[in-house]
Write a structure and sequence with these properties.
Elements lengths: L8 H14 L13 E5 L11 H19 L3 E5 L1 E2 L3 H14 L4 H20 L2 H9 L9 E2 L3 H16 L3 E11 L4 E3 L4 E16 L3 H6 L4 E6 L10 E4 L13 E4 L4 E7 L12 E3 L5 H9 L26 H14 L3 E14 L7 E10 L2 H12 L4 E3 L3 H10 L4 E2 L1 E2 L9 E4 L5 H4 L7 E2 L4 E3 L15 E3 L3 E2 L1 H5 L2 H4 L11 E2 L2 E2 L2 H8 L2 E7 L3 H16 L4 E7 L2 E3 L15 H8 L1 H11 L6 E3 L5 H24 L13 H22 L3 H24 L5 H18 L4 H14 L23 H22 L7 E7 L1 H17 L2 E6 L8 E2 L3 E5 L6 H27 L1 H6 L2 H27 L2
Parallel strand pairs: 1-2, 3-4, 9-11, 15-26, 25-26, 27-28, 29-30
Antiparallel strand pairs: 5-6, 5-14, 5-19, 7-8, 7-13, 9-12, 10-11, 14-16, 17-22, 18-20, 18-21, 23-24, 29-32, 31-32
The protein binds one RNA strand of 77 nucleotides through strand 8, strand 12, helix 8, helix 11 and helix 19.
RNA sequence: GGGCGUAUAGCUCAGUUGGUUAGAGCGCUGCGUUCACAUCGCAGAGGUCUCUGGUUCGAUUCCAGAUACGCCCACCA
């Protein structure tokens, strides 16, 4: 069998993926003999295409799942997608626009049909890409938030919350996207600073008597949104503001509209801001809304749904809000009612889907009361029943939960779950309430909340019932994900599904709570916090024990990668250029716990190079075995020599550290440890050492360590390791597990620290020293003779290791002598000399001087410390001892270097 | 305005309860094709650990402040 000298991922990945899928290696089921380990995927939007953030997030999950699977857990990674209400609707609307159609032109039914058609065609693209990434999900279980069974879960949750009084309907001010024409939750209105103006507008005082008594004929209010003045129904000042004491009980005239406005007083007004006088627009500003309710003001809605001005806007009716702003400012300027304007940064809410500036709007919507749900969700985190990694997110989470606001869950779009709400046309007028924006507050009358459409109205018996047209916020489905994916609450009975018999209820009991949730910080509030609330509310148990929050993927300059900025690195392109394992390895190496990662194409070279290293080490080992024609029946090494034991010790240490790192979610550390061991310990030393001392035992050792190495690496680089494992299986007779993906995780072995092992370590050090000395002497490329002076026992050790020492220190030969002319390198056990004809003695001395100088400064520091009585008194005995040892060691080294220098005089 | 985070080699980052001769990868420099790999090997240069105080026998590490950058939340219109 020929093995190419370059690893070619393209020849391997597709084939290996198919093997995994065909053997059902990713499948998980209830198994009483195994502990479960489960993760639910953060369901990607069906509109999604794989980006670097997905690659990072899903590789992390896959690493943990593969690690636990190999450790013997029944590892389930639940896959699925999110219907992504607004996002998907926008995509299909855009398609429609190409045919010059709006969704209203074709109607709800037809539009929904097109949405489903789109979903069928493109909805699983992202899942196919995740497979390509190597994601070892149980792909039989793919769930979609718009599945029928999933819809049942949502209805159940809605009805339960409603019956508990935790869902209500009411006219409140909400975030309105005039482009998507829907309400949004607070989280969906992203604050971004934009450049604007603060306009100072004069409002004439109407009370003539008062205005003549006082000098002022008008008051000045400051606003960033002058167009909203058309909906003003009051002005407000702080009750303690003496500057405006004279305004008490006065009325002012709203310019343009010529409406009389009350002057109200409220503590909420900041006397220091603007002029201290605020225009109050209860229908178009959250603060003003609260003021309006508190002071019983009129609510005048001046805008249509698309943010053009409506009939209440007088002459500006029909104009867009920003055009109207310009027109109003112009008119006010003409009337000399603008005192001044200042440039001003406005933190305006933007629609998180289409980035349009949010318009606060009073509207009849459905809300979830969050405070009661938050209580338990706060406790479990306070008490560390759910832990965050890194831990600092605990504070962020709690801070948000302590200040949680009610959640607006109704959306005026067509793609999503219809609210399980029905209205009786006969006995209620609630439907009309939608247009009566003046009615503010909670609305309960004439509503039937039910999973199924009621036969008749419970009040009047009418059969004329209609379902609410709105759909639910996408996140109202996502928050049920950890248990709704198991077909909660109805389950499926005992139907065989995709060739396997699953008892859904048992599945849920077995796999829930899940082990860990892995996500980016962006959706901590959207999703993580709400899942915790939903889990506790509906399952009476936390949904996951740990939350791993990883960083954001940025470009080289530290700017967040985004399609619109054009600075993305496409993971699929990286896969194509360097291979999936290279992508995964580099990401895992760079993803320090919780910190953002800065990417450029070159960052993936580490991964590619490492894959190639693994490939070539395998190639060498297999060739060597084939050449030597040894026959392997087992990989058990019965009688390891000191080199073997040295390697086994290093391997065990690596396994231990890798385990700890993975357990603590320090995946980058684990990745680094395996890399160092494989490349530098195994390849650079062991393989080089045994090249000319090859036999059956070595062959077993090489394969044994190679197998353990690829096992350790498998979670991070699944494809190449599985391929290598296959190559090993096919080319040796030893009994090995069927596939790496389901193989047993490596175990540590105990290796005694005996004399020969200690001497080996010294020999390795000596080889490194010899390399250095040769370079200092300018003899790097010359094979020279080494002379060794040592006791006969030590000489025997040297002779045993002579072959590899000669090779690795690049020596002509080694002579053992009673007497050497000069010592060029020494330790407690041996003195060495090199034949140094033509050497650069000056450079060698200079290098010695440098070492001597640096050691002297260390010695000085240590001496000082040991001479300090405070140190001796206060430092721990152990520390003092350590310091004394260091003193001896440094002194000895120094002595040696000085002697060496003297020998060259 | 409130909260959080980061600052270590040219770049990206490690540095585990204060005591290290402060590390790695990439990049750079020199040498090297000795029968896996030049996607390689051997070695080297490069750091007053952002600054200022404090605690301590001792601070890159703990505390306070400053500076810079970043993130999140928030009803200064």
């Amino acid at each position: 069998m020929e093995i190419s000298s370059k690893y070619n991922p393209k020849e391997v990945e597709g084939k290996i993926l198919l093997q995994w899928l065909e053997t059902g290696s990713f499948n998980a089921q209830v198994r009483s003999d195994k502990k479960p380990f489960s993760i639910v995927i953060p369901p990607p939007n069906i509109t999604g295409i794989l980006h670097m953030g997905h690659a990072l997030n899903n590789t992390l999950q896959d690493v943990l799942i593969r690690y636990r699977r190999m450790q013997g857990y029944e590892a389930l990674w639940m896959p699925g997608t999110d219907h992504a209400g607004i996002a998907t609707q926008n995509v299909v609307e855009k398609d429609l626009a190409k045919q010059n159609l709006r969704k209203e032109d074709i109607g709800r039914e037809e539009f929904t049909a097109r949405l489903w058609a789109w979903t069928d065609k493109y909805g699983s693209t992202i899942l196919e890409q995740l497979k390509k990434l190597g994601a070892s999900c149980d792909w039989r279980r793919i769930r979609f938030t718009l599945d029928n069974e999933y819809n049942e879960a949502i209805k159940e949750a809605f009805v339960r919350l409603y019956e508990k009084g935790l869902i209500y309907r009411g006219n409140y001010i909400i975030n309105w996207c005039p482009r998507c024409k829907t309400a949004l939750s607070d989280e969906e209105a992203v604050r971004k600073e934009i450049d604007g103006w603060l306009y100072y507008i004069k409002y004439p005082v109407s009370d003539v008597e008062r205005s003549t008594l006082n000098v002022q004929r008008y008051v000045v209010v400051a606003t960033t949104r002058p167009e909203t003045m058309l909906g003003d129904t009051a002005i407000a000042v702080h009750p303690q503001d003496e500057r405006f004491a004279w305004l008490k009980n006065a009325t002012v005239t709203l310019p343009i509209m010529e409406r009389q406005l009350r002057v109200i007083e409220d503590e909420i007004i900041d006397m220091a801001f603007g002029t201290g006088v605020v225009k109050v627009t209860p229908s178009h500003d959250p603060v003003d809304f609260a003021l309006g309710k508190k002071h019983n003001l009129d609510f005048i809605n001046i805008m249509h749904q698309d943010a053009t001005l409506n009939e209440h806007a007088g002459e500006f009716s029909g104009m867009d809000r920003f055009k109207a702003r310009e027109a109003i400012v112009a008119l006010l300027e003409e009337k000399k009612l603008i005192e001044k304007k200042e440039p001003y940064k406005i933190a305006a809410g933007h629609c998180y889907r289409c980035h349009t500036i949010i318009e606060p709007r009073v509207s009849l919507q459905w809300f979830v009361k969050m405070k009661p749900l938050a209580e338990a969700a706060i406790t479990v985190v306070e008490e560390d029943k759910i832990r965050f990694y890194p831990a600092r997110w605990k504070k962020v989470y709690l801070n948000w939960m302590y200040n949680i606001q009610d959640w607006c869950i109704s959306r005026q779009i067509w793609w999503g779950h219809r609210l399980p709400v029905y209205y009786c046309k006969q006995c209620t007028t609630t439907l009309e309430l939608k247009t009566q924006s003046a009615i503010v507050g909670e609305v309960k009358k004439g509503i039937v909340v039910s999973k199924e459409k009621p036969q008749r109205c419970p009040d009047c018996g009418s059969i004329d019932l209609v379902q609410d047209n709105d759909v639910l916020d996408t996140w109202f489905s996502s928050w049920l994900w950890p248990f709704a994916t198991f077909y909660w609450p109805n389950f499926r009975g005992q139907k065989p599904e995709a060739g396997s018999q699953m008892d859904d209820k048992k599945e849920l009991e077995y796999f829930y709570p899940t082990a860990v949730l892995i996500t980016a910080s962006e959706i901590l509030f959207f999703w993580v916090a709400r899942m915790i609330m939903a889990g506790l509310e509906f399952k009476k148990e936390i949904p996951f024990r740990e939350v791993l929050i990883h960083g954001t993927v940025r470009d080289e300059r530290g700017i967040k990668m985004s399609k619109s900025l054009g600075n993305i690195i496409d993971p699929l392109v990286i896969i194509d250029k360097f291979g999936t394992d290279a992508l995964r390895f580099s990401l895992m190496l760079l993803a320090a716990s919780g910190s953002d990662i800065y990417l450029s194409d070159e960052k993936f070279l580490v991964g590619r190079n490492f894959a190639n290293k693994i490939w070539n080490a395998t190639r060498f080992i297999l060739l060597k075995i084939k050449e030597s024609q040894v026959v392997l029946d087992t990989l058990d090494v019965e009688d390891p020599d000191v080199l073997d034991r040295w390697l086994l010790k290093e391997l065990s240490g690596t396994i231990r550290e890798v385990d700890i790192s993975f357990d603590e979610y320090r995946i980058n550390d684990a990745t680094k440890k395996i890399y160092d061991f494989f490349w530098h310990t195994f390849c650079d030393w062991y393989i080089e050492m045994i090249k000319e001392d090859f036999n059956l035992r070595r062959a077993k050792m090489l394969l044994r360590v190679l197998v353990d190495s690829v096992k350790l690496l498998h979670p991070v680089m699944p494809f190449i390791t599985e391929e290598v494992f296959g190559l090993i299986k096919r080319s040796c007779g030893a009994q090995l597990e069927p596939m790496l993906v389901c193989s047993r995780w490596p175990q540590t072995v105990i290796v005694a620290e005996d004399e020969p092992l200690a001497k080996l370590t010294m020999l390795i050090e000596t080889v490194k020293e010899l390399r250095n000395i040769k370079i200092d002497l300018g003899l790097a490329q010359k094979k020279v003779i080494l002379e060794v002076k040592a006791d006969s026992g030590i000489v025997a050790q040297w002779k045993m290791h002579e072959t590899w020492i000669r090779r690795l220190a690049f020596l002509e030969r080694i002579d053992y002598k009673e007497h050497i002319e000069r010592t060029i390198c020494k330790n407690d056990l041996w003195e060495l000399n090199l034949a140094i004809e033509g050497a650069d003695i000056k450079n060698f001395i200079a290098s010695l001087d440098k070492k001597i100088k640096s050691l002297e400064s260390v010695l000085e520091k240590v001496t000082q410390r040991l001479g300090n009585e405070h140190f001796l008194k206060n430092a721990s005995e152990e520390t003092v001892q350590q310091e004394q040892l260091k003193f001896q060691e440094v002194k000895r080294q120094l002595q040696r270097f000085k002697e060496l220098k003297d020998a060259f005089k």
